[in-house]
Amino acid sequence: GGGSGAASVAGGDGPDEVQCLHLLVKHKGSRRPSSWREVNITRTKEEAQLLLEVYRNKIVQQEATFDELARSYSDCSSAKRGGQMQPSFEEAAFKLNVGQLSGIVDSDSGLHIILRKS
């Protein structure tokens, strides 16, 4: 790809718009180990990963939708919106195909899974 067309991003109409949902599970090593669900988060990173694997399997097996799980279990304030993400995650999201679920993503906020909606 040619890297010269950076100006075109400003248009913001259509195909380079990525809509994604994410589900965050914080752990005690998170930057701010507290959320609307739990004032003091004490779980380990390993426990957070196990939880996310459970949620991910439910989505893959179609036992629950990403939206439902994010609203119930995400430690991010975006949970109320069904997990709509900040743009900072969209870099990881751009790598996904539409409708694709990411693996577990590690950030300083905690562990996440991401679903690309469009």
Explain this structure.
The protein is an alpha+beta fold. It has a single domain (18-116), classed as Chitinase A, domain 3. It is built from three helices and three strands; from the N terminus they run βαααββ. It has helices at 45-60, 66-73, 90-94, and strands at 20-25, 105-107, 110-116. The protein has a three-stranded antiparallel sheet. The two termini are 22 Å apart. One of its GO terms (cellular component) is nucleus. Residues 15-118 form the PpiC domain. It is an enzyme of class 5 (isomerase). It holds the Pfam family Rotamase.
The coarse overall form would be globular
Strand content: 5-15%
What profile does the largest beta sheet have? 3 strands, antiparallel
Binned, the helix content reads 10-25%
**pLDDT < 50 runs, ≥5 residues:** 2-14
Q: H/E series, N to C?
A: EHHHEE
Can you summarize this structure?
With 118 residues, this protein is an alpha+beta fold.
